[in-house]
Every structure is written in structure tokens, then in C-alpha cells.
Amino acid sequence: MRKIDTRRFVRATRSTPREINRLILLNLVREHQPVSRADLARHMDIGRGMITSLVDELLNEEAIYEGATIDAPRGRKPQMLFVRTRDRLVVAIDVRFSRTDIMLGDFAANAVATESFDTIVDPGEFVRTIIARTKRLLATHVARGRCEGIGLVVPGMVDQRTGRILNAPQLGWRNVDVRDAIASGTGLPVQIENAPIACALAHVWLGQRGREAGDFVYMTVSDGVGCGIVVNGQVVRGHSHTGGEFGHIPLDVSGPRCLCGNRGCLEAHTSNLATLTRYLDRELSPEDMRAVLRDTGLTVGDVIQRARDGDARAIAAVDATARFLGLGLAMVINALNPTQIVVGGEITAAWERIEPIFRQVVRERTLTTDAADTPIRPEDAGISPRLRGATVLVAAPQFAAPRLA
Amino acid sequence: MRKIDTRRFVRATRSTPREINRLILLNLVREHQPVSRADLARHMDIGRGMITSLVDELLNEEAIYEGATIDAPRGRKPQMLFVRTRDRLVVAIDVRFSRTDIMLGDFAANAVATESFDTIVDPGEFVRTIIARTKRLLATHVARGRCEGIGLVVPGMVDQRTGRILNAPQLGWRNVDVRDAIASGTGLPVQIENAPIACALAHVWLGQRGREAGDFVYMTVSDGVGCGIVVNGQVVRGHSHTGGEFGHIPLDVSGPRCLCGNRGCLEAHTSNLATLTRYLDRELSPEDMRAVLRDTGLTVGDVIQRARDGDARAIAAVDATARFLGLGLAMVINALNPTQIVVGGEITAAWERIEPIFRQVVRERTLTTDAADTPIRPEDAGISPRLRGATVLVAAPQFAAPRLA
DNA sequence: CGATTTTGTTCGTAATAGAAACAAATGCCG
DNA sequence: CGGCATTTGTTTCTATTACGAACAAAATCG
Questions:
Q1: Contact (Cβ atoms closer than 8 angstroms) between residue A232 and residue A1
Q2: Are A323 and A354 contacting, i.e. CB atoms less than 8 angstroms apart?
Q3: Å between A13 CA and D27 C1'?
Q4: B38 CB less than 7 Å from any atom of strand C
């Protein structure tokens, strides 16, 4: 039950039914391809005549294409339809603390080419580099298709509407606008989004057969800890663009210092830095700790490997992270009761070790057995969820439901 | 940007635009009444001819009515339109730990008659009493109009779809179905909902000129602590009906025992019981504490009054509640970043004392100044927000946006 | 009383969902 | 091998309805 916002409603016109049905059709093709017109008519419970008319429109606009006919037990063989994805390209960019990845991929997030370079913290130089690399990539692969936009994923808060990066502590960016500069430099539309939300969007739009559509939470446990929240198929951005910041909810008011300035935040207990600090067993300032890590080259992956090899201190460090992660997950479940939680980040490499631990904590800290049994799964290995998210930023709006009423 | 759910979409038909526009029109009348057809045409950016046709339909169905013409500076005087609310009645029922209130009210939640009785914990007897009182109320006020349903608000988790009360600890109800029995006993449709969500719905639908439509959180701080979360104009119920349970997120793993069985929950720090426990400075089990309170008749209102009178122990108890409440509010802000938070419950009587305290904590525990300045206001005094919520349960579905695409 | 202004109604037109008839393509079976 | 059944896809017709424009109604003002 939704209330109609009487200051910002969208009235229906004569062409509204057609727009709605066209989009439903397009999405059905997307999720059932290869699919015939007759199948679509059955799915939509509508006459085949209507389908012909809508399909012709989508074919003219080159949103879909006709493939080969396919064998059927009897009767005329159906002509299969597909969404055009292979020759519609996206430049997906993932900016992280140390490295930046660029992928030229198609609408289904299949990689055409990938590059990587050390993250440039000066916004001006960053913009120039992105523009140059984008132009080079597109020139090299001009035959693969037309590029429809750039998707940029950053580790920080973003104002979707204006495109400004409000605060990305890992880069030291505050109120920086790179979107418009990249857009005018490349002549391409640029979409920008913060990392956990982009990962959540990737799951909504590229998940197996759209099973993840409804309500779920994507939790990143990496340098930072954040959530992409999806409610009723829509992402929760928050009024001032800080929704999903479960990372800075305190677990323990007298806990370890956090980068945000407080004590005992979930992030201060479960981030990669926290696990490493626990392993090294040193009380250093975040800056000193980073320096130590740069010098030794030690990563969470190493600690997980050592835990697997039986190193008692590594086991203790990882297990403690798992326990605190359980508190964070229980928090999310109590607050939102999602259908499932997807966890991403380096810590998922230790899944078989951490899962029983956080599951136990979740059981203790939730109110019902249903809630305690909320499915919690690791992000699938493979292509970076952030690059997939960046792709979706450009591709998904073409398939999204129309705003109505 | 919403994804179309390809398993549960709603196709548009030829009459879809009319349905949409009719509902927009109805809502515009609701929020702008008294309003003329010409005004509506301007609001909707549509021809007056269309409005005439839609208004005729709504007049025939008796959803709206024509009032008197009104003076205009020049030209033909406009005929004002109103939503029919005064003769469409709802029986609103608010079940609390000790007392149950019944209100016969109109669609705008104006009271026609109110009753109150000690809460009956036996479900069978409860149902019989409700049926008898409802019948009597309706017989007495039969001239006031037709009753369109019963709205029932309970302190616990509810499955909206089946109508079952899954768990209401204050009443000791687990998996109890009173809805169908009341419905068949009275011949009226019954809507049932948990208290914080009902309060949130009341704000969405009866708030000043619909200003609260978008994203906000209603937090009840009473015997329990819970939240009604509204995102994108829709309530968050959660996958297994336990959304918004911020009350059982731990603030401090070594804190006081909570009714839920854990330690250190927000509820264990901020509920009425917690404040009273702190004031009495006794470590009693919840059962013993309830007995003491029943004997002494002491309420949170009394403690607040004593704090106002300068009682140091009362001041300390209330101030501590305010500090913990600040942590809870910061948690909500970090998680969801709503446009505002509305706080309901007995503690709001001490608003001028607690506000600066929790505001300070919120400032320390949030990430941006925008988030720190999230408006936090007390529930307006006056008619019980829960009775208003119960009314909305019946009235609002007639005005809600249609499910589409 | 006519001119002007504003409100509300009526009517013709164009767009389009829905239904039904039709055409095309294929396998089956005598 | 030629009807016949079956399934797919197209075309045609009709009823509905948003939209625009003309019209009627009701009021004020000079």
C-alpha cells in the first residue's frame, strides 16, 4: 500500500498502458530469453496480436533482436527473441583505496577489456586519466558496438541527483564533482554511485533469473563496512545520501577507535583493518597501522590463509571478526528483516570458518526462528561485483519500471 | 529506479489510465478540499472535460460529494468538492498491555464514541467482547453512517496477509488468529497491524497536508521499543514480519537483561520499565518489577513529574533514558537516514528535558551534519496515534496507489 | 445590457487494447 | 503425398477513452 504523493505524481496519458506493457515485455524477454512471441503472450496473459505490435516497436528501436527459429514438437516453429546486449557497451570504473579498475563491458557485464592503475587522489588528474583511458578503450574496440555511458563506483557517499561525491574518506574527497567533467570530456553520460549500493543493484539486475528482486541487503566487509539496502525492489539512499551506514553503529561504546572518530563501531570491529590489527595485536593509530601494512605487505587474505594453516593467532583474529560480524548481521535482520543478506569483501574467503560462528551469534540476537534462519550467503566469486554494479548503473535505467501515480 | 518483478507484475489494460487518474484525482480532493473542478484540472495539468468525466464517476460511487459554490473575484463561481468521510465509519481498536480502547470514528479519524476496558488476555473471550461492543456501538450510532470495517492495533508481530498475531509478548499471544473470528462475528472486514507500523501509517495518511509521505521512521518508546519504517511511501514489514525491531539491537553486550532473553538491548535501556527500574534502583526480574509497579501504581509519568520537581534520582533516570535513546536514534539515522523521526510514547512528556541530551548523542554518533540535524519530533498530543492508525488501516486502502508494472 | 472572465459540459477525433479472423509453417497420419 | 491438426505470428475490426476544442452556464463590471 503506497500513498500517492500529491505534489510529485505522474498522471497517466493515453500512451501509458503501452509504455507499461512495453517495459514488462522487454523485461520478460530479458529474463526468459530465448523466448517466442507466443510464450510472451502466455506470460502476459494477452493476445498475440498485441505482442506482435509491441515487439515490432522494440525491434525498430533495436532494443531486442530476432534469433533463429527453434525446434518444437509440432506446429509452426517459434521465432526466438533476445535483448540486444552484446553490442551495447558500458565503461565501468571501480575506484578503491589503492587501485582503480576500468572495464569495457557489454550490457550483461561481460568484459571486453579491462585495465587497472594506481588510484589517483587528485581529482583533476583522476578525471584526465579516466577520459584518456576511456577514449583509448573505445577507439581500440570501436567495432564491438556503441558505448552508451560510463558507470563510476566510489567508496563513499554520493548525491545521485547532482553527481557530487559528498565524502569519500579513503580518497580524501569531500564535495568533489568528477561526473560532469568526465561527461563533458568524453561526451558520454556518467552515472555515479557508492559501492555497497552499486553491489546491491548488481544483484537486483544481474542475479540469477531475478530471484533477488524484492527485499535484501548487500553488506560489504572490506576496508569499510557498509550496506546496500533494497526494499520493495528499490534502493534506500536516504534523505541526505547516508542510508545503509550500518558500519558506524556502535556495538560497544568502549570498543576500539574507529576512523569516523567514535569508539566501538561495527566497522572498527570487522573491517579488514580491524582483523589485521587484532592479528598483529598492536594498538596503533589507523595511520601508523596503514604504514605497517604497506611495509609488510600483509593482507586479510594472508591472515585467512594462516588461519587455514593452523596459526592460532590468525584463527583468533578471524573468529573474533566473525563474532562481531554476527552482531552486525543480527542488527540488519532486526532492523529490516530482509529475505536474505549477501556479504561481499575479502573476508568471504574464510566463509566455511566464519559462517558457523556468525550464525550462532545471529541465532542468539534475533527474535524469531524465521529471522534467525535468514539466508546469509557470500558474494559469488568471479567478476568484481563493483564493476558489475557500475555496468548496471548505465544499463538498468533502460529496463526500470516507469514512475506512475 | 525499480525493477519489474517478472513473476508478479501487473499488466496495463485499456482502463489503466483511467484508474490511475481517478485515484490521483481522489487524493488531490482529499488533500486540497474544498477544491473545484477547474483547480483540479490545473493541478493535474489536464483538460477540464476529463475532470468532469472522472468527477462524475466518483460522485456516482459516492466517494466524493459536491458542496456549496464559493465566492470568486470574477467569473462563474466554482462548485467545491469534498471527500465523503463524515458518514463512513470505522471501529478502531487499540489493544495494550493493561487497557483496550475502542473508538467509533469517521474516515478522518474524528471520534464519534469511545470506550475503554481492561485488556482480556484470553483470545476467545477477547473476541466475544469485541464483537458485542462493536455491535452495540454501531446500533447506538446507526444514524451516523455505514461502518466500513474494523481496524485492530496490537503490541506485537502480525502477518498482514493471513491476519495471524505471531507473537505479542505483552499479551502472551503466540500464533493467535482473532481477525477471522471478529470478521465473521460482526460481518465486517477486519484489518490488523502492529502498533509502530500503524502509528507510522497514521502519520503518512493523516499528517499535515501529506508532508510526511516519503521516508521517515516512527519510533514508539513505551512498554516496548519499536519502529515503523516508511521508505518510498511504503511501510517496511520485513520478510517474516519482524521489520523495524530496533528495540532488540544491543547497545552494550554487558547491559541489563531484556524481556527477549538477551542483554543490553535498546529496549532494556529505554523502555518505560527500564526508566522505572533505574529510578527505583533495584535489580528485579521483569515479573517482580511488574508486581512492584502494580502495587505502588508508579508510572513513567510520575517519574517525569518528579524530575520536573527536582528529584535528583528521577532526573538521573530520565536523563539516562535520553542518552540511550540518543544511541537508538543515531542507529536509525545511520541505518536509514530518514527525512525525520517521530517519537511516540510516555517519555515524550519530558521532551524539553530529553531533547538536548539525545540530540547531543545523535551528533556524536552520526556521520554528517545533515544526518546529525535530522528532525526529531514528539508525536502530537491529542487523539491516540494508535487509534488513528487503526482507522487508517481501514480507510487508506481506498486511496492507495494502484499496483502497476 | 453587453463585454469579460471563469467554470463546467459536450462533442468529435485520434490512439489503442482486445478480440477474432486470417495466414504461415510444420508434423502427423492415413 | 495430400489433407488435417496444431502452433505461431499478422491483420483487421471494434469499442473504449484521452485529448482538444467548441460550447453553455454563471458570475462581475462598466
A1: no
A2: no
A3: 33
A4: yes
B44 in Cβ contact with A405 (< 8 Å): no
- Whether CB of B79 is under 7 Å from strand C: the answer is yes
Q: Name the residue closest to D6, CA to C1'.
A: A75
By C-alpha distance, the chain B residue nearest A204 is: B3
Contact call for B20 and A166, based on CB within 8 A? no
Q: Does B52 contact strand C, using a CB cutoff of 7 Å?
A: yes
From CA A101, how far away is CA A115, in angstroms rounded? 6
Can you tell me whether residue A374 is helix, strand or coil?
A: coil
Angle at A320 between CA A314 and CA A324, to 5 degrees: 145
CB pairs under 8 A between A and B: 264
Distance CA B316, CA A211 (A): 51
The reported pTM is 0.91
Beta-carbon separation of A371 and B242 below 8 A = yes
Q: What is the mean pLDDT of residues B152-176?
A: 90
Side-chain half-sphere of B374: how many Cα atoms within 13 Å? 37
Model confidence pLDDT, tens digit, residues B346-401: 999 999 999 999 999 999 888 889 999 999 999 987 778 999 999 999 999 999 99
pLDDT in tens, A258-301: 877 788 889 999 999 899 989 988 777 666 776 777 788 888 99
User: H/E element holding A99?
Assistant: strand A99-106
Lowest mean pLDDT across A139-153, A207-221, A314-328: A207-221
CB B29 within 8 A of CB B399: no
pLDDT tens, position by position, A6-51 = 888 999 999 999 999 999 999 999 999 899 999 999 999 999 999 9
Chain C nucleotides covered by protein, CB below 7 Å:
4-11, 15-21, 23-28
Bond preceding residue A385 cis, omega within 30 of 0: no
Q: Chain A residue with minimal CA distance to B362?
A: A249
**Mean pLDDT within A223-236:** 90
**pLDDT value at residue A171:** 86
| B73 C-beta neighbours (distance < 10 Å), count | 4
Give CA–CA dist A92/A224, Å, rounded. Answer: 21
Render pLDDT for A100-135 as a digit per residue (tens, 0 to 9). 999 999 999 999 999 999 999 899 999 999 999 999
Burial of A338 (0-12, 13-18, 19+ CB in 10 A): buried
Of B347, B345, B390, B382, the C-alpha closest to B94 is B390
